[in-house]
């Protein structure tokens, strides 16, 4: 019973990972890719590790709780650092973007 | 004071990593962990936090626990939103960078707000101005006014985060 | 069922490799490497569940830490500043 429940959680997590990576391939520029992939892969990894918490060796479940907290803190921070770096290094937005407040304020 | 708090946090993390469940307690591991956490606490304690007295407010921990379901709810909404936009054959996106303002002042509060914005529907924080402005990349821009964007993006987290971090 | 999960993760890894090889700017490649690092954590978690042993979680934790630090270092390098700040 518990194994079935954790397999269901892992399946949903894998599905979200797949959506994030499809976004990584399909979307047009760095910022959109970063958004889609960071959100979906973070939730997918947390669901997979939650499956370990439900049924697994008890040492592994404590470590995966620690890993969930760690990933929830670090993945958005890495995304923020990367987007700021690509702004500073001069990567342009997609040509169909509607507004860019940052560039207007820099002038 | 800063060093003491850091040493206690590091020792809790060490116990989480090495606790031998189902066997006898191994005292060597616990004592080695104590030495290592005291050493690294004395080395890195200076740059740890700005205001150590905030760790003793008990109410903050209850607000932090109440913040978890809110974050999980908006995170799941964000993922369904991204899945819809990615799987749609026409890619319904309209990206742009807008500017929002916030009332939070402390560094840890701003960090938590920026991370929450990154995990919620359609938005990602790009740059943080120390005067209280955050530049946000929005995947489907609904408005370019500062007040309205603040109303939509920031308001749903700011009240709870103010009680946790200020 | 476990085979299906592995197939999902392998497809994800190949999409990341496509983005790493084709990305028009350096930032695109770094995004691909970052996502690939988190996918490896998923692999370790599923092997833990499959084999019912616990030491793969150690690999997962340290891989997540090292991938985060590597991404931060490369983004500081792209920003064109020094490593302290």
Strand arrangement in the largest pleated sheet of chain B: 1-3-2
Give the mean pLDDT of chain A. Answer: 84
Q: Which structural class best describes the helix and strand composition of chain B?
A: mainly alpha
Number of domains of chain B: 2
Series of secondary-structure elements of chain B, N-terminal to C-terminal: HHHEHEEHH
The total tally of domains of chain A equals 1
Distance from N terminus to C terminus of chain A (CA atoms, Å) equals 61 Å
Q: What's the N-to-C terminus distance of chain B? A: 19 Å
Q: How would a crystallographer describe the biggest sheet of chain A?
A: none
Q: Got a strand count of chain A? A: 0
Q: Which two chains share the most extensive interface? A: A-C, 50 and 46 residues
Order of helices and strands of chain A: HHHH
- Percent helix of chain B, as a range, is 55-70%
* Helical percentage of chain A: over 70%
The counted number of beta strands of chain B is: 3
Q: Segments of chain B where pLDDT lies below 50 for 5+ residues?
A: none
How much is the radius of gyration of chain B in Å? 21 Å
Would you mind describing this structure in some detail?
The complex is a heterotrimer of chains A (107), B (166) and C (85). Chain A is 81% helix and 0% strand. By secondary structure, chain A is an all-alpha fold. Chain A has one domain. The radius of gyration of chain A is 18 Å and the shape is elongated. Chain B is mainly alpha-helical and 166 residues long. Chain B has six helices and three strands. In chain B, β2 and β3 form a beta hairpin. In chain C, α1 runs antiparallel to α2 and α2 runs antiparallel to α3. At the A-C interface, α1, α2 and α3 of A face α1, α2 and α3 of C.
Describe the secondary-structure layout.
The complex is a heterotrimer of chains A (107), B (166) and C (85).
Chain A: H1 2-26, H2 30-54, H3 58-88, H4 101-106
Helix pairs in contact in A: 1-2, 2-3
Chain B: H1 2-18, H2 27-44, H3 58-87, E1 96-101, H4 107-119, E2 123-129, E3 133-138, H5 146-153, H6 155-165
Antiparallel strand pairs in B: 1-3, 2-3
Helix pairs in contact in B: 1-2, 3-6, 4-6
Chain C: H1 2-22, H2 26-51, H3 56-79
Helix pairs in contact in C: 1-2, 2-3
């Amino acid at each position: 019973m518990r194994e079935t429940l954790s397999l269901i959680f892992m399946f949903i997590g894998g599905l979200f990972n797949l959506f994030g990576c499809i976004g990584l391939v399909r979307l047009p520029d760095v910022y959109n890719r970063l958004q889609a992939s960071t959100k979906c892969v973070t939730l997918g990894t947390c669901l997979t590790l939650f499956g370990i918490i439900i049924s697994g060796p008890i040492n592994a479940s404590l470590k995966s709780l620690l890993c969930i907290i760690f990933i929830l803190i670090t993945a958005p921070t890495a995304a923020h650092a990367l987007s700021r770096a690509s702004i500073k290094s001069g990567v342009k937005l997609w040509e169909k973007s509607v507004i860019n407040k940052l560039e207007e304020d820099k002038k | 004071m800063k060093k003491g708090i850091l040493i206690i946090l590091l020792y809790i993390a060490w116990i989480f990593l090495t606790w031998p469940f189902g066997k006898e307690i191994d005292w060597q591991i616990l004592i080695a962990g104590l030495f290592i956490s005291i050493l690294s606490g004395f080395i890195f304690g200076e740059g740890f936090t700005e205001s150590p007295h905030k760790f003793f407010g008990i109410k903050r921990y209850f607000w932090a626990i109440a913040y978890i379901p809110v974050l999980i709810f908006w995170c799941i909404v964000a993922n369904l939103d991204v899945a819809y936009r990615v799987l749609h054959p026409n890619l319904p996106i309209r990206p742009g960078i807008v500017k929002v303002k916030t009332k939070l002042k402390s560094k840890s509060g701003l960090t938590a707000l920026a991370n929450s914005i990154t995990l919620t529907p359609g938005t990602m924080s790009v740059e943080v101005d120390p005067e209280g402005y955050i530049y946000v990349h929005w995947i489907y821009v609904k408005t370019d006014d500062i007040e309205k964007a603040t109303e939509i993006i920031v308001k749903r987290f700011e009240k709870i985060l103010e009680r946790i971090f200020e | 069922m476990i085979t299906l999960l592995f197939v999902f993760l392998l497809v994800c890894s190949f999409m990341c490799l496509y983005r790493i090889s084709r990305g028009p700017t350096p930032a695109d490649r770094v995004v691909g490497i970052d996502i690939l690092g988190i996918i490896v954590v998923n692999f370790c978690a599923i092997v833990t569940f499959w084999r019912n042993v616990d030491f793969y979680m150690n690999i997962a934790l340290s891989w997540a830490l090292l991938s985060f630090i590597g991404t931060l270092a490369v983004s500081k390098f792209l920003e064109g500043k020094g490593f302290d700040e």
